[in-house]
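Notes to self, Antitoxin:
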Amino acid sequence: METINIHEAKTHLSRLVEKAAQGEAFIIAKAGKPMVRVSALDSPVSGQRRRIGFLAGRIAVPDDFNDMAREQIVEMFDR
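result:
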């Protein structure tokens, strides 16, 4: 993770905020000592894991999902 001194952060705040919003977190340091970590609001908190299956019950996958468009796919690649 990139560390930026506080003076540079003040000078380039807009660019750094945009960078963080795109998912590139960074640390702001004062006199070489890390002070804060800046990250997007929707990014996972440090140590937080992404939940597998968080959409369970909200979406439905058709029973024939693996066979959908099989003929077209075979036709495209089996020439």
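- The beta strands are 2-5, 26-30, 33-38.
- Residues 1-40 form a domain with the YefM-like fold fold (CATH 3.40.1620.10).
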